[in-house]
Task: structure prediction
Amino acid sequence: MEVLDKGKKKNLLTNRDVFELLTDIQEGRNGYEKPLPSQHNLSNVVYTTLAYLKDTPCRHQSQDANRRFCDAVKGFGLTKAEKLQLLNLRPTTDAEIQVTVEECEARLNVEQVNDLLQVIADVLPTEPSFPGDDGTADDDQEEEVDDEETLNVQETS
Result:
C-alpha cells in the first residue's frame, strides 16, 4: 500500500503501519473516529484486514526494529519494494528469499542469502519482545515520527 500526498513523494506502508492505522481506526484513537454503524463496508474492511494481520509477523514488529532492519540490509543492494516485502513476509528459508528478491541468483550468492536470513532472524521479531506485549502500541508510549521516516523501508544512498 502507498500513501499519495499531492506535491510530496510517495510513502510505502509496511504491514505494521497498516496494522497500527487500522487498530487506531477500530478503537477510535489518535484522532480517528470509529466507523459508524452505517459504515458497514469500512467496518468489514477494518475487521477483516486486522484479523489477517494479527496472524502475521508484523504484529510483533516495531518502528525501531524496522529501521534497524533497513540499516542492516543496506549492503545487499535491495530495492525499496524488496525491503518492504522482506519486512512484511519475514522469510525464514532461502527459497523464500529467492522468490522475494528479483533475480536473486544473479544478485546474491549463497553466503549473502544466508547472511540476509540471519539479519532477518536477528532484527525482526517473531514473538513479542517481552511478556504481555501483544504488538500494539500504548497511547502513552507512541513515538512521533517525521513524515520522511514513515517509510520504514526508505532507501538511503
